[in-house]
Each structure stands twice: as C-alpha cells, then as structure tokens.
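Write out a record, focusing on structure:
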Amino acid sequence: MALVYKADPVRGAEWGRILARKRPGLAFHVWPETGDPEAVRYLAAWLPPPDLATRFPKLEVVFSVGAGVDQFDLSALPPHLPLVRMVEPGIIGGMVEYVTMAVLALHRDMPAYLGQQRAERWQPIRVHPASRRRVGILGLGELSRAVLAALAPFGFQLSAWSRSARAVPGVETHAGAAALPGFLAGCDILVCLLPLTAETRGILDRDLLAQLPRGACLVNTGRGGHLVQQDLLAALDSGQLSAAILDVAEPEPLPPGHPFWTHPRLWLTPHVASMTQPETAVDAVLDNIDRHARGEPMLGLVDRARGY
C-alpha cells in the first residue's frame, strides 16, 4: 500500500520525513517516482496526472493538498473515486491571520496612508470605532466561520451570505440569491471566501460591486476567477470602492505590466493567505486514510455534483 505526493517537491520531502516517523508501514513516493503503480492506494496532489484509472488501477482516494479543488477537472476523475480537500489547522490559522490583517488594515485606512507616505503628505484620517464598521463575508464554510470568530472581539458589525441558510451566533446571516442585495448594502468591507464553482465564477463583477455602499472595500482570498478584473479597476477609479486587497489572481502570476501591480488603491499578495503545513497536513491525510479503512466518512469529502 502506497501514497504518492504530486505537488511541490520540497514540501514532499517534508511529508516523507513526517510519514516515516508517523506511519513507517506506508510506502511514500514523491512524483514522478511512484513505485509499483499497482500498490498506489492514495494520491495527494495539487494537480493529478492524467489517466488516473489506468495509471493507478487500485487507487482508492485522491487528496487535494489545498483547501480548494477548483484546480481539478472533476470530469476527468473516475466517477467512483473520492476526492477530499485539505482540512487542517494550518490552512485555517493562516486564513484567519490574513483576513484579520486585511480587515484591520482597511478599517484603519492603511492603503490611504501608504499613498500619503509616498506623496510625502501628513494628513490624519478620522478614526471610527470598529463597532461602526460593517464587515460581510461571502461564504459560510469552515474558513469563514473561523474568520468571523476572530473578528468578533474587535466589535465589528458582522454579517455573512451563503446559498443555503446557516445560523452563526453574533452574525447576521443571509441566504439565497434574493438576500444578496440586502447583504451587500450592509457591507463596508466585503470579504470573498467562496469556493470557485461554475455558479460563483465572476461573481465579483460590476453589478455586485455597485450594490456595495459607495467607498466600500474588498478583500478577495477566494480565487482569482471570482473577480472580473476590469470591473474592479473601474470601481476603484470611480470611487465606488476606496481600496481592495487581493491574495489571488487569474492567471497566477499576473503578467508584467498588469494594472494590479501598480494601482495606488490595491494591495496584492501572491496567494499566500494560507498555506498547507506539512505536519498538520500529514495528520489530516492519515486521519482520513484511517477513516476510509474503517468505512467512516472522510473529513473534507467533496460533493462532486456541487464542486466543493
């Protein structure tokens, strides 16, 4: 029985050292090494190789090494093969840190102050208490709930939107397409943490941004495909949005000369909001392997019909 890792080889080497300590009986290979293909039962990958059914005929589970699975072509995976996204504390902790940083930076006008510093201008901006700032989260999965819990102690007015109704203590929740305009109208800072699906691709477009209060801010830590780039630039240039912080783009990396690199009201980071940590990632995979062996539900099992 073997596990093949197909992602960053440096992290793969870390996985190998951890697995040798925690599960020495499980053979482990870093792609392109696979050992005996007949022995491969598990694949951990960012992008799987083609022809999985013939390449690894006894493969039982595919694990994504990231929290999302939008990089997978679900139609190319054998229908019977379970796909499991990564659910581990390192991803959650990193996202909580990043979104909290971004919300606080926008709340305290740091993008504007950076622009003033570059212009050698000393001009205080009136400080408003967090209790007067409305922060809304698009999406209400595990990452979103952790972010909301971290933001709550600051006193922000918190709201969230999801496709189906969910209750979160201390958070004003909205559900369904009909509730989206009302949710957006109450967001001074909008954070996108949606999974990328056919339904959510391009959701951050001109129409959605126009429904935010004038001067609102945007944080996108979902996927670059959520955002219509020209619509964001137009919203920033018109003043409909005062600032944006983006951790994701499409494509990644952005090409030289792209306007996101130099826009004065836009902060850009290279998809670093959260990163899978090898130690906790290995623990998560081993836990799911054991669950699978016992016939129990695996944590993070993807609903192939919904794409997440």
The chain has a mean pLDDT of 96. The two ends are 28 Å apart (CA to CA). The first strand starts at residue 2 and ends at 6. Residues 89-107 form the longest helix (19 residues).
